[in-house]
Amino acid sequence: MNDSHSYAETAEQHIPALRRTRIEPKRLVRVLPDEQAFQGWRTEHGGTIDAFASGDYAKGDSIVLDFGIHCVGYLTVRIGAAVGPADAPVRLKLIFGEMPCEIGEDFDSYDGSLSRAWLQEEIVNLDTVPGTYTLPRRYTFRYLRIVVLEPSRKFRITFPDIYVTHVTSGDPGRVEPLPESLPADLREMDRIAVKTLEDCMQTVFEDGPKRDRRLWLGDLRLQALASCRTFGSHSLVKRCLYLFAGLRLEGGKVPACVYEKPEPHPDDIYLYDYALFFAAALHDYYRETGDGQTLAELYPVACDQIRIGLERLDERGIVQDDETWYCFTDWRDELNKQASAQAVLIYCMKRALALARALNRNDDCNWLETEIERASKAALAELWRADAGFFVSGAEEQVSWASQIWMALAGVLDPVETTALMDRLFERPPGVGMTTPYMHHHLIEALFECGRRERAIAEMRRYWGGMMADGADTFWELYDPADKLSSPYGSNLVNSYCHAWSCTPAYFIRTYLI
Amino acid sequence: MNDSHSYAETAEQHIPALRRTRIEPKRLVRVLPDEQAFQGWRTEHGGTIDAFASGDYAKGDSIVLDFGIHCVGYLTVRIGAAVGPADAPVRLKLIFGEMPCEIGEDFDSYDGSLSRAWLQEEIVNLDTVPGTYTLPRRYTFRYLRIVVLEPSRKFRITFPDIYVTHVTSGDPGRVEPLPESLPADLREMDRIAVKTLEDCMQTVFEDGPKRDRRLWLGDLRLQALASCRTFGSHSLVKRCLYLFAGLRLEGGKVPACVYEKPEPHPDDIYLYDYALFFAAALHDYYRETGDGQTLAELYPVACDQIRIGLERLDERGIVQDDETWYCFTDWRDELNKQASAQAVLIYCMKRALALARALNRNDDCNWLETEIERASKAALAELWRADAGFFVSGAEEQVSWASQIWMALAGVLDPVETTALMDRLFERPPGVGMTTPYMHHHLIEALFECGRRERAIAEMRRYWGGMMADGADTFWELYDPADKLSSPYGSNLVNSYCHAWSCTPAYFIRTYLI
């Protein structure tokens, strides 16, 4: 089989069941501006849930509930009437926030580049009071602000019951506890990472359950790694791989992301690195499962991505650069992607080669060995600056963290030189740094792989530990310790604060530290 | 049986089925300010539905659909994506209007005394695009404004299908056509009146399907009259009478209105005239149906209302006046209700007497005859001013249209004097006039009953014909030809433009003119 329809059918056969858990709010909070607090907002205790449930509210009242934990699910609220019977609909504004900033700031002032519709705000009109309402949309939040816009003058409203039905396809019971001997902060980091992954595990591995709620190949690859060490959801990884295989773009290209609803369909975005990662993700899946049927069925798609990737090489054997968003690598405007794209190509060809060997595809083995050698030699010849000890990227010969890290992961230099390169990064850090946890994942992976275990742990503590110190319930899409309001979208309100590509501390801790 | 629970059970056994009809929009319109137009707004053709269905829309676009007819029901809209795939939720504002003013004016400027939640405005976030959405609430409208708040920059949205599922418990097939010999304007008036009634006929006779959507006794009495001549929904009248009987307030008082949801319950409003109308409505129901079992079961409740009403008489035998909203009569601040309340008491006692006779309750007959005589004599002795030829009301001896009309309906004077009183109203009109179609109904009824058929028709043409000239699709809650923005609630936006108590031209035309 190598037709999209059959792939899509296999994907649909592996839709997981969702587990549902009732979560009730833990307390009321006040959200207050505070220059010292993360992103300028802190919470303080604002009352008990008992007081909330027995109180009554009039037009203009505003309450913030703290559910005490990051939730992904469906809100149910029971509304009652006090003083008099309800003689008109109740109109409420509901604002759901993963973070205090979403509760503290006014969404009407939002001017980010992504749709404001991602900001979780509803205005609801409820006709029947008393009544119990379950909102139809799924929300991702820890905090919920309720603004009472309209009861009539005749009555006051009450909230005798409110809860969220949390959903995930991950089974926390399958996650092995960590040994007590592991330092407490790393166990806590693992707990938060596992929770991050759990909340992104729905009927696909979503990138972020608040935003974008879709399946990206770059996120999938990291989630699959973490899942193997925690929830063991191989079936969900398989489903996602088949979705990508079933939803290829023109010319057989794997899209950067796909949507599940109303029926599975691809976005029109093709990213050079993400498409190549299909081979890497399939490699990781096969290594973990030994599932030869899936390997045989999806291998042609993986090979196609390599073939398509190779078409971008110029006569020197170097990935052609351009000004478009052709390759992801990291969220960093000034970053030139040429060198990292070259490295990702090599990295993925090496993994495709392992698959070709497993399938005894000798022709493919020869082809891949040749291409790996060509691309690696070209990288050394054209991008490596032995005098500086760094790889350069693009016409401006940019030196960035990303280029070095990806060349290290691709193994273009020999192991001793690779370790030296990674050490050099810290001794003489390039000016073009890293933005996302996604890029930081590759830093950590490269450090572990070249034997720099202590530095890897230190960097995890600096970066993910920084999020913890800043109050993360789940790990974030973006984190720049030097600019805590940073966002690639023009507003930190729309950043995702539970983001799949940030979950890999669980993978590192469980792969390298126990 | 005389217990609330049994009454309520009988009411529940008569919940009617709703008929559902699909209604599609007929055209696009523009709503434009125009000082010459009713309430300052007119519509003009803005495009075809084909153009709308094949167009695509971006952030900031605003479209007004005209469904061409007054609808009560559930909106279904199919949303598609054009240009690119939808990569974010769609956020729309939907504004439903019975009248152009609701579409033309900004609800955010509303400052009426009733809850803004009655204004039909939704902000919806739709996650799945393409997708078909049926909104959970029922709306009452002819016009629908769609404001595109948020698609992302990546795509434009389309509306390939949109319709309303209109609901009513009235069966238009049961309405007899009028003879062609009847003047065309009266046939048109009847058509609009029947449509008004149809749209208020849900699982109770609602007062207005936009607002308040509940069962008021004053409205029920008029709807039942019109229903007998049109839809013949005796079962729905029965259900409503049993609901009132089953939901009495302390002391056995019938409430002025009741709610159906979440389960039937009374409002805490008691109105002197409305409670007494229970007897009148039961009388009308029995006259039309001969349903002796219902009469026997509900008669005690009707008698109780008379008994409670009599308790308000002072030592002179006159209804005690006060400054509270104890009696409805009409929406008119300066109107004194004493005389009309006295007349309603007499009017209803006469109907209770007819019921007592039908049941051979001789003791009750004697009691009612005595009380009718006492109240009528007191009215003549204390409220009638023979020199002026009018009844007065309250300590200030106010002379109003309402007082004369109700005294005429109560038959306090003899028939010749009553006719003279009604003629005098037009020869020397009192300064305190009428506001509502509800009060105008009683004017017309009094004119027909005293033989002033031509004047009755002329007044119907002046008043309901005025609404027709002003563009009524259904007849309105309020209509003051001299002040077309008038509202008892501080804003004409919240007035109901399909209101049960305005449906009685169908009753008059079908009772007195054919």
TrEMBL record, chains A, B:
<dbReference type="GO" id="GO:0016787">
    <property type="term" value="F:hydrolase activity"/>
</dbReference>
<dbReference type="InterPro" id="IPR008928">
    <property type="entry name" value="6-hairpin_glycosidase_sf"/>
</dbReference>
<dbReference type="InterPro" id="IPR035396">
    <property type="entry name" value="Bac_rhamnosid6H"/>
</dbReference>
<keyword id="KW-0378">Hydrolase</keyword>
<dbReference type="Pfam" id="PF17389">
    <property type="entry name" value="Bac_rhamnosid6H"/>
</dbReference>
<dbReference type="InterPro" id="IPR012341">
    <property type="entry name" value="6hp_glycosidase-like_sf"/>
</dbReference>
<feature type="domain" description="Alpha-L-rhamnosidase six-hairpin glycosidase">
    <location>
        <begin position="186"/>
        <end position="511"/>
    </location>
</feature>
<dbReference type="InterPro" id="IPR049164">
    <property type="entry name" value="Glyco_hydro_78_N"/>
</dbReference>
<feature type="domain" description="Glycosyl hydrolase family 78 alpha-rhamnosidase N-terminal">
    <location>
        <begin position="25"/>
        <end position="165"/>
    </location>
</feature>
<dbReference type="Pfam" id="PF21104">
    <property type="entry name" value="Glyco_hydro_78_N"/>
</dbReference>
<protein>
    <submittedName>
        <fullName>Sugar hydrolase</fullName>
    </submittedName>
</protein>
<dbReference type="GO" id="GO:0005975">
    <property type="term" value="P:carbohydrate metabolic process"/>
</dbReference>
